[in-house]
Amino acid sequence: MDLKFKKPSKETQIAMSKVAIGEGSEDYFKIAEDKLCDFTNHTNCKLVNSGNAAILTAMNSIEGAILIPDQGAWNGFKQIANFLNKDIITVKTNQGLVENSYLEEAILENESILSNNHNALFLTSFAGYTAEQNIKEIANFAHENDILVVEDASGAITDSETKLANGKYSDIIIGSTGSPKIVNVGYGGFITTNNEKVFNKSKLILKTSKINNIIACGIATELDYAQNTLNVTLKACKYLKNNLNDVFHSDKRGINVILSSQDKSLSYNLKNEFKLDNHGIITKCPNYNRLKEKGVAIEIKNLDISCLETDKLDKIIEVINSFL
Fold it and tell me: Model's pTM, two decimal places?
């Protein structure tokens, strides 16, 4: 089954091309940063050259320990925390979902490490890209315990329900605009916050993580189409979850679908079926970035939205079911 890998919108490609050849002199940094602040309800924003640069900027501003989920997050959290020589506390989850009971357990078990009150929980908007975190509830509990919340919203920026990527809950919001993210430019990232000190503490990192006006233009333009991309992807995943068996977090919003399976050949078979312009939509699990459960992740987020019409989704379901 031939599918299309997600690319920046035609409008974004055209806009970036015009800037590249010297047409127009607009400050796309300000345009993009203002749009991101509007979407996140934060007052300050910086564009950077990658999602990892955004994580590094945010984490460098944290004086205390770093709390991370035991699965369903991003392995860059741990790698960057180790690089910065931070204390790392792993929080148990419900198959990637952070729950306050587990968060409380982690706090009680690490009181001495957390005693300085300058700690932060890093998590992704969607656990394993497949299940929406209850950011509001998590943030309320975290703040009661003097823990900041840093949300990697690469997969949820522009959430129309404003449950995710919302600065009313998350103290810092970070994200990648690389491929194939919701703001899909192929390069870059961002960090937003109401606390300007975050940037002051990481001036050197920000200086060495600069992008050019071409990428800033791409981010500014692609933000105009990101909400539709996210909504279409969420709707497609809901349809798939409703029509496939043995799906993790079948009742949760997400931008991929993770199937539970003991069949070691399933990922191999599906990779051969879903050909994607030399890219893929299949991730074998267990995988920290997805779930530490046996199964296969169908990365619907990687697909161009033209591939997410009902007839094509039905064909995807048919192919998957043929191997179950």
Answer: 0.97
Give the residue ranges of DSSP H helices in 129-282. 135-144, 197-200, 203-208, 213-243, 266-273
Angle at 74 between CA 228 and CA 278, to 5 degrees: 65
Q: Is the peptide bond before 180 cis (omega within 30 degrees of 0)?
A: yes
What does the pLDDT look like over 113-156, one tens digit per residue?
A: 998 779 999 999 999 999 999 999 999 999 999 999 999 999 99
What's the rounded Cα separation, in Å, for the pair 303 and 9? 13
Contact 187, 42 (CB under 8 A): no
Nearest one of 314, 301, 280, 272 to 1, comparing CA atoms: 272
Residue 261 CA to residue 239 CA, distance in Å, equals 20
In this prediction, residue 48 carries a pLDDT of 98
Tell me, what DSSP letter sits at residue 97?
Answer: B
Cβ-contact 163, 136 below 8 angstroms: yes
pLDDT at 116: 78
Q: What is the pLDDT of residue 275?
A: 81
Q: How far is residue 26 from each of residues 16, 74, 186, 223, 225, measured CA to CA in Å?
A: 12, 34, 21, 16, 20
